[in-house]
Structure prediction request, 95 residues.
Amino acid sequence: MNKYELAVVISAKLEDDARAEVLEKVKALVERFGGAITEVDEWGKRRLAYEIQKMKEAYYYFVRFESDAAAPGEIEQRIRIMDGVIRYLCVKQEA
Prediction:
């Protein structure tokens, strides 16, 4: 099992419950592809480095999980088309 960190940037235009729903969908995706979530770090609303879709701010979340090597590709494929997620990045953590 490898350790991964998934950074997810969620639109600030969403209401609190809609944003929580998007995060739950992301966590469900990780678990669906055999990942075991170890930690979810919420950074809250932050200013973006540059404007994305006419937004200057967004909510940042970091989901740390353990899974086999095939899972991150599958997870990224599904997150790419998810409404509410404006950016994402999954990286393998060093042991």
